[in-house]
User: Which sequence fits this backbone?
């Protein structure tokens, strides 16, 4: 009996000491401040704190980071006694030269423990993107565990922190942005979403890419084209507007839905084509040292609206005419986009290099380094084929 | 709980033991480790061939064990090469087994403390894990096999579910061109891929535990036991590279988990699916840990011809100390590589040699 | 090089932790071993004391007669000595027929069948054939009584006094006749028994509405009534030192494995208790591992469950005085099965069975998953849910674990209370209590509404489990799961699950491993595990019991 008692006592002591240390990683959910969106801007104004001044002195650029917090107090249902909050979110800003120290400085301002696993968007200001290498800026976000690789990236015209504001009190801007991105399936003017996961691959392979551009007017957020990030320097080169984006969407085959507006030759009236499906194939040709590309675009759709009085949709002739009109229009869009990317910006954002890599890997190995330069000189031809399946419920 | 051969396992149990042993850290690190060597999207072919190599090694080991159907490796290697050399090889194998145990435990602790429990000290993560393993092993090989039979279907179902959920961000272009730069890069990756298939060496022990009527089926057991992890690994590699692309994989420490985190399916109950992967992965690590721990204990018990009991408890602190030795993650990965190399020698070269020697001896006698 | 080696050596703290790693399980192991040994020897000590006492009690009896003599006066005196002081024992002396052969009956009022005694025994003996009985004496009289005079179906002769006393005490009548050495024991036991009703604890929508009663003979008759079965063997045994009770082991001869029956009998014979009040005592004394939270013997009140089990090759134990019969050996899936699964069609039964497994899972892991997600892994829940959780949990003063514990304990208390309350109030109290307490707690800000939902769901899920004792097991384990979730989050739940599985895998019930249909993989047994395949496909008995005759359906 003595043995048992001795054993039991020892065991109790051991267990109690173990358990006394407590649960280490538990944090209750209502104590968290969820970060749902982050924006980064270049700081050009006056700086306040000493370390910021030091940094400026040592010739380092300063960033202003704004985090959008949603806490248990700001969510609508969290209020008691019917007192509506003014905003459903809270934005907190800080300035500094490296991302993480700046973020941690926010601890001095926020009473909740910040928790970034629900972060949905990262918005980078135009100036910042054109001045500092994107890979350096985003290094923290790629490394930090809490930021999920499913977050979306945007570029903002002017100040990025503006994109995180909204006039409507119950909406959270970060969520709004995410939901607006879902519209890319219905129009060609919005890019397919660029997640952090995909971004990494592009950054490390030194290829150029596009990032959706966000502009704010009067407190309203709008998607306005895309920003071109050059592969080699990883900085912002310029912007493509919405109609350029259409051409890009057609070229890369990402057009899942959307419209093409063509003009009838004879009457000059608009005919609108709605895309049901669109495919594109980029075929590289290599003859010796000469590289050229052919783009083959195929699409099926319907006539959604037409203002031509003289023809009826029931008439196949009209359909054939309309198809030609659309083909021309699509080709024009593609040409316009190619013009801009090849000649004005000299960057390959539509994945021509990728296709070359797949079909002619050895050639790609040779040309990889100077690809953007090479790309601006290769001839590209384009063939479009449109077929109209139906015209809705009115055959007029 | 003694080292006699009274516990028996069926063929399906043997298959499941091999499968669960092989599926361990490879799921998480294989994509990156192999892409580092191969640098083209042909990694999946290397993985496939690595599995084939493992199968060959497995068959050799089985043939060797079938020469002495009722003895485990620790017992019959003395018959083949004499007492001292046999002891030495047994000691090496035992050391290998408990080192692998410790390695698996440490990797599990690293991943868990990174993704699941941030503030918890490592010892608090490892100790309960060790204790549950100890509890399981004290029931003998039969209980281990039965637990594996529970874990395996769960793993299978959840893994396939999660892998196919990631089809949403899968891009086939990331996997092309196939053999674009020739066969050479792919061959470089075979060695790394084979290391992910460490596991058939358990057949050195298992054949002795099978029912006498089943011993001839041991070859089929090994082949089936490697084929299923082969499938798993190929699917993993294909999905990871297809979604993240080669360059994306190179910089990620744990690419498979990143794959699971990079998509969200709104509307399904859990939007985020990395928890599933982590759950099955921890169970698989537990499986690998227990079987290697058992193999090491069995070895010690048979070499010293005593009961397994004291060795079970005695090996626990040793495994713990070895697990805590690597100082950072890079150390841990190099540690893993070194173990892999040791395994290649121990289980690639030694069984062939032993088989030849035993065949020669057989002919003489 | 030496420096390099040293640089690889871990801290002294690591060594300390390693020592702890070894020490704690070793302590636990030693504890259990010592505990087990002491317990077993305690049992032996108990037994020794018992037998000593029994011996001491036996001694005075040994002074008296062990066997009946033929002397009527002496025998009657003996019986009066043993039983006369009891109020309910009656002695009726009379004379046989028209002779002066004295006879007496001893019977227990209340347990005996008065009508039988009056009409058949006394009448036949008193009015019997006058001529013959006047002549007959001794042995011939004995033959005559047995063969011609007494028209009763149960008639035995007994020579030992104590046995006769025992028989009287259970309702038989002892007939002492002058000149005959042995006494006659006439079976007139007719205790009061209740009607056959559907058992309350195992109600079913479809199926026979009969349940066992407290009388053993009624129970065995129910088994026999199920259908003519030549191989249904019902073997009698006796348990209890002071109050001897009849126990019956039932099995089907051609199906069951003989070793199993032998094992069961052996284990029952090791029971040395004063009084085996209920079959629960037997259950706890013959089970393999008394430290396990899982029950290794199934108890049931329904005869159809018993018969189904017997037909699979299991053994049933029925005890007089309790309607609960025991079935051994038990496997895990039996805890989640109900005979109703077989009476309904296969598709609906399969789905309902799957639902039950799901409910068992929720009942076990529900609150712990909640705690893990709310306290540890908030990143793994969908954002909108996280937001609403944050909103509703605002102002709750307790961490998730305490909240969960409060609610769970409250529900457990409610449940226990509901069992004790009288029938009209019981269910209402449960519902009202649950609703009101939950609602009030939310309003007061002590718990969050999501917690109430989780707890309510778990409580309801645990009611979906057909076996009551399985439900209790899961309730217990739920608390352990909550604690491990509170310590380590999802990792804790995984470790708990692995620990539970390790335990289940090691558990054996009478030589059959507890998780038998699933492990080892036997495809044939899976037809009845999680789903119920159509009857046409279930031709064989489960192989886990190694039955002798494995074909269920003809051909």
Assistant:
């Amino acid at each position: 009996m003595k043995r048992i008692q001795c054993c039991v006592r020892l065991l109790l002591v051991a267990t109690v000491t173990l358990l006394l240390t407590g649960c280490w990683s538990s944090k209750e959910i209502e104590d968290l401040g969820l970060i749902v969106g982050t924006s980064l801007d270049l700081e050009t104004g006056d700086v306040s704190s000493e370390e910021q001044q030091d940094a400026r002195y040592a010739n380092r650029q300063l960033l202003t980071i704004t985090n959008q917090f949603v806490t248990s107090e700001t969510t609508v249902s969290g209020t008691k006694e019917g007192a509506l909050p003014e905003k459903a979110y809270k934005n907190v800003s800080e300035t500094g030269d490296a991302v993480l120290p700046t973020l941690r400085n926010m601890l001095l301002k926020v009473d909740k423990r910040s928790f970034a696993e629900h972060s949905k968007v990262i918005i980078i200001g135009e100036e910042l993107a054109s001045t500092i290498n994107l890979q350096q800026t985003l290094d923290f976000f790629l490394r930090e565990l809490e930021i999920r690789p499913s977050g979306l990236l945007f570029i903002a015209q002017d100040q990025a922190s503006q994109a995180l504001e909204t006039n409507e009190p119950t909406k959270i801007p970060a969520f709004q942005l995410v939901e607006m991105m879902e519209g890319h399936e219905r129009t060609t003017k919005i890019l397919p979403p660029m997640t952090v996961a995909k971004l990494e691959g592009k950054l490390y392979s030194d290829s150029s890419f596009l990032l959706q551009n966000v502009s704010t007017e009067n407190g309203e957020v709008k998607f306005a084209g895309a920003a071109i990030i050059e592969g080699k320097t990883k900085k912002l080169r310029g912007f493509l507007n919405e109609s350029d984006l259409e051409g890009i969407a057609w070229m890369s085959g990402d057009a899942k839905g959307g419209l093409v507006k063509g003009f009838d030759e004879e009457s000059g009236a608009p005919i609108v084509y709605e895309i049901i499906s669109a495919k594109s194939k980029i075929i590289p040709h290599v003859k010796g040292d000469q590289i050229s590309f052919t783009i083959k675009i195929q699409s099926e759709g319907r006539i959604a609206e037409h203002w031509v009085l003289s023809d009826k949709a029931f008439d196949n002739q009209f359909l054939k005419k309309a198809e030609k009109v659309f083909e021309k229009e699509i080709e024009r869009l593609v040409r316009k986009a190619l013009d801009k990317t090849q000649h004005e910006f000299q960057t390959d954002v539509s994945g021509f290099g990728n296709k070359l890599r797949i079909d002619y890997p050895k050639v790609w190995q040779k040309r990889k380094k100077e690809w953007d330069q090479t790309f601006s000189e290769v001839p590209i031809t384009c063939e479009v084929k449109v077929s109209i399946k139906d015209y809705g419920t009115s055959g007029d | 709980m003694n080292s006699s051969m009274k516990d028996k396992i069926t063929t399906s149990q043997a298959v499941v033991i091999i499968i669960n042993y092989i599926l361990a850290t490879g799921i998480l690190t294989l994509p990156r480790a192999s892409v580092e060597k191969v640098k083209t999207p042909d990694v999946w072919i290397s993985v496939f061939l690595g599995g084939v190599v493992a199968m060959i090694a497995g068959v050799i080991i089985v043939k060797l064990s079938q020469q002495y159907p009722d003895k485990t490796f620790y017992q019959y290697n003395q018959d083949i090469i004499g007492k001292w050399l046999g002891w030495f090889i047994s000691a090496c194998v035992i050391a290998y087994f408990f080192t692998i145990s410790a390695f698996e435990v440490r990797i599990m602790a690293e991943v868990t403390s990174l993704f699941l429990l941030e503030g918890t000290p490592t010892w608090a993560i490892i100790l309960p894990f060790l204790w549950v393993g100890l509890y399981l092993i004290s029931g003998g090989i039969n209980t281990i096999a039965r637990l594996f039979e529970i874990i395996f279907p769960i793993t299978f179902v959840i893994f396939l579910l999660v892998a196919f959920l990631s089809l949403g961000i899968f891009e086939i272009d990331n996997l092309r061109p196939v053999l674009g730069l020739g066969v050479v890069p792919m061959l470089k990756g075979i060695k790394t891929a084979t290391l992910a298939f460490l596991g058939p060496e358990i057949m050195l022990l298992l054949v002795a535990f099978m029912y006498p009527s089943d011993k001839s089926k041991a070859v089929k057991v090994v082949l089936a036991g490697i084929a299923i992890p082969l499938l798993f690994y190929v699917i993993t590699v294909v999905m990871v590279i297809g979604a993240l692309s080669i360059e994306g994989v190179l910089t990620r420490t744990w690419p498979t988990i990143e794959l699971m985190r990079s998509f969200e399916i709104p509307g399904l109950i859990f939007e985020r699916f990395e928890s599933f992967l982590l759950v099955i992965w921890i169970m698989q690590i537990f499986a690998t840990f227990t079987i290697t721990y058992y193999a090491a204990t069995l070895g010690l018990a048979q070499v010293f011809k005593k009961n397994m009991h004291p060795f079970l408890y005695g090996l626990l602190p040793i495994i713990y100390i070895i697990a805590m030795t690597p100082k950072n993650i890079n150390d841990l990965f190099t540690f893993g590589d070194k173990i892999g190399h040791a395994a290649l020698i121990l289980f690639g070269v030694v069984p062939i040699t032993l088989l030849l020697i035993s065949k020669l001896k057989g002919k003489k006698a | 090089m030496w420096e390099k080696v040293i640089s690889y050596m871990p801290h002294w703290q690591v060594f300390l932790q390693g020592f702890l790693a070894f020490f704690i399980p070793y302590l636990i192991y030693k504890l259990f071993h010592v505990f087990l040994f002491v317990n077993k020897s305690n049992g032996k000590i108990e037994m020794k004391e018992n037998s000593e006492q029994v011996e001491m009690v036996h001694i005075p009896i040994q002074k008296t007669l062990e066997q009946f003599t033929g002397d009527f006066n002496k025998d009657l005196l003996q019986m009066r000595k043993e039983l006369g002081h009891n109020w309910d024992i009656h002695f009726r002396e009379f004379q046989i027929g028209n002779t002066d052969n004295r006879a007496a009956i001893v019977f227990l009022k209340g347990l005996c069948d008065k009508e039988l005694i009056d009409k058949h025994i006394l009448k036949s003996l008193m009015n019997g054939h006058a001529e013959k009985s006047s002549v007959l004496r001794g042995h011939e009289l004995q033959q005559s009584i047995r063969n011609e005079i007494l028209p009763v179906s149960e008639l035995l002769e007994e020579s030992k006094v104590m046995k006769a006393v025992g028989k009287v005490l259970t309702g038989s009548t002892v007939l002492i006749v002058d000149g005959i050495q042995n006494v006659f024991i006439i079976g007139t036991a007719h205790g009061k028994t209740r009607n056959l009703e559907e058992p309350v604890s195992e109600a079913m929508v479809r199926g026979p509405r009969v349940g066992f009663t407290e009388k053993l003979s009624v129970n065995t008759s129910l088994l026999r009534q199920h259908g003519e079965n030549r191989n249904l063997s019902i073997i009698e045994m006796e348990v209890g030192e002071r109050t001897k009770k009849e126990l019956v082991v039932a099995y089907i001869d051609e199906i069951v494995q003989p070793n199993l029956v032998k094992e069961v009998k052996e284990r029952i014979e090791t029971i040395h208790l004063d009084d085996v009040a209920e079959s629960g005592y037997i259950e706890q004394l013959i089970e393999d591992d008394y430290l396990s939270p899982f029950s290794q013997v199934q108890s049931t009140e329904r005869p159809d469950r018993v018969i189904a089990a017997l037909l699979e090759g299991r053994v049933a134990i029925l005890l007089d005085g309790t309607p609960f019969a025991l079935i051994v050996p038990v496997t895990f899936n039996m805890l989640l099965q109900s005979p109703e699964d077989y009476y309904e069609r296969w598709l609906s039964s399969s789905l309902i069975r799957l639902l039950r497994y799901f409910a068992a899972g929720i009942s076990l892991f529900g609150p712990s998953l909640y705690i893990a997600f709310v306290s540890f892994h908030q990143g793994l829940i969908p954002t909108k849910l996280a937001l609403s959780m944050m909103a509703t949990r605002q102002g709750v003063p307790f961490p998730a674990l305490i909240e969960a514990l409060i609610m769970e304990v409250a529900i457990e208390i409610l449940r226990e209370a509901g069992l004790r309350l009288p029938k009209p109030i019981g269910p209402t109290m449960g519902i009202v209590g649950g609703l009101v307490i939950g609602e009030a707690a939310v309003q007061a800000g002590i718990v969050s509404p999501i917690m109430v939902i989780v707890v309510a769901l778990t409580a309801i899920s645990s009611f979906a489990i057909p076996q009551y004792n399985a439900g209790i097991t899961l309730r217990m384990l739920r608390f352990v799961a909550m604690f491990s979730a509170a310590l380590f989050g999802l990792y804790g739940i995984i470790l708990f699950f692995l620990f539970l599985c390790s335990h289940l895998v090691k558990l054996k019930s009478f030589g059959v491993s507890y998780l038998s249909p699933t492990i080892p993989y036997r495809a044939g047994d899976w037809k009845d595990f999680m789903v119920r395949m159509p009857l046409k496909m279930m031709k064989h008995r489960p192989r886990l019991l190694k039955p002798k005759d494995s074909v269920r359906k003809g051909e």
